[in-house]
Design goal:
This protein has helices at residues 39-55, 76-79, 91-103, 186-193, 219-227, 256-267; strands spanning 27-30, 58-62, 106-108, 112-116, 119-127, 133-138, 144-147, 151-154, 166-170, 173-177, 198-203, 232-238, 244-246. By secondary structure, the protein is α/β, with parallel strands linked by helices. The strands form four sheets. Strands 1, 2, 3, 4, 5 and 6 form a six-stranded mixed sheet that branches. Strands 9-10-13 form a three-stranded mixed sheet, covered by helices on one side. A hairpin with a 2-residue loop joins strand 9 and strand 10. Helix 1 (39-55) packs parallel to helix 3 (91-103). Residues 26-268 form the CN hydrolase domain.
Length: 268
């Protein structure tokens, strides 16, 4: 007997069609960088890698997580930049802005420690081909781990977790942004890929920095909203539907080889 289930009718109202990407074929440059304690050297190294990727035809270039800083709780406050202030307060983003404009490419700038008020964030900056900062993503899921005899690292000791999703329209299409450990949580990728009407709770202290969206959130986040005693002062209705998901990472050699490649395949 044929099934009476009709998946196209399972969503009401029906999903909003994903917009056609500006480009249907383009090259992506993925830069792997050896980080040193010398910040200026790290910036120069990243610049060289971006230029090499663009020279080979890349229209979208990605950097890794914490590419300009040593990755430790002691180092992050020292290397942190005031991205909003720019200029001398943020030499890393000055470089990303200049090179994206000069080479007319889109850059997903991995991540860097950002000082925002009295807090530190693990921040991914996305620059458009006009050199403008199009979006910032604050890492949502901080990496706290303790494997006796192997590795102990408590990212939350220094960093503050972000609370917002980030989808940004670029010259190569609509991109959903996560950082490293964010990839562990499938709901984030599911939300980024979703097409339909959803609700996003905004804490009164948070500012949405991303630009254009498709439509937001789903059952599990709504369940989270109603089951957790968080004090949201407003709700935001957004549009999602990403063409591409980017999760810049810097996984360690203990847990990374166990699941990093598997996680990428699962999110695909």
């Amino acid at each position: 007997m044929a099934s009476s289930f009709k998946p196209e009718q399972a969503r009401a109202p029906p999903a909003v069609p994903l917009p056609i990407p500006p480009l249907t074929k383009f090259k992506i440059g993925i830069c792997q960088l050896l980080v040193t304690p010398d910040k200026e050297r790290n910036i120069a190294h990243a610049l060289k890698a971006i230029e090499e990727a663009a020279k080979k035809g890349a229209q979208l270039v990605l950097l890794p997580e914490i590419w300009n800083s040593s990755y430790s709780n002691d180092s992050l406050p020292v290397y942190a930049e005031d991205i909003d202030a720019g200029g001398d307060a943020s030499p890393s983003t000055v470089m990303l802005s200049e090179v994206s404009w000069r080479l007319k490419i889109t850059i997903v700038g991995g991540s860097m420690p950002e000082r925002y008020g009295d807090k530190l964030y693990n921040t991914c900056c996305v620059f458009g081909s006009n050199g403008k900062l199009k979006a910032k993503h604050w890492k949502i899921h901080l990496f706290d781990i303790d494997i006796p005899g192997e590795i102990t690292f408590t990212e939350s000791k220094t960093l503050t977790a972000g609370e917002s999703l980030t989808i940004v329209d670029t010259d190569v299409g609509r991109i959903g942004i996560g950082i490293c450990y964010d990839i562990q949580f499938q709901e984030l990728a599911m939300i980024y890929a979703a097409r339909g009407l959803f609700i996003y709770p905004l804490n009164h202290e948070m500012i949405m920095i991303s630009t254009t969206f498709d439509i937001l959130i789903g059952y599990r986040l709504l369940l989270h909203l109603f089951m957790n005693p968080l004090h949201y002062t407003r709700l935001m209705f957004l549009h999602l539907g990403a063409h591409l998901l980017c999760f810049p990472g810097a996984f360690n050699l203990t847990t990374g080889p166990l699941h990093w490649e598997l996680m990428q395949r699962a999110r695909y």
